[in-house]
Amino acid sequence: MKKIEAVIRPENLDGIRVALEEKCIVGMTVEEVQGRGRQKGVYLQWRAGEYCVEFLPKLRLDMVVDDKDVEPAIEAITAVAKTGKIGDGKIFIYPVEDVVRISTGERGKEAM
Known about the structure:
It is a single chain. The protein has 2 helices and 6 strands. It is an alpha+beta fold. A hairpin with a 2-residue loop joins β3 and β4. The termini are close together.
């Protein structure tokens, strides 16, 4: 099992959710976050002049999937989120040792 953590632009959430569902990946947690990378924020004009917003609003999707679903999940996320511009986001993949479903005590793949 692997944990996929994807940091994406908020406007891409619905499209990514649909693309993942088409690949039978439905379980996920979504959290509003702020961040910056190479983009280093954006400069905006306001009445008083220009100012920099250094940390931009993003969403973080967390999901645990079977090893065989890692590449389909990555493909689904990138198909929707990729514009080719800085700020599209990142995907991180981590190994997962075990999963426990609290309500039943099931472990491993059965708990997913």
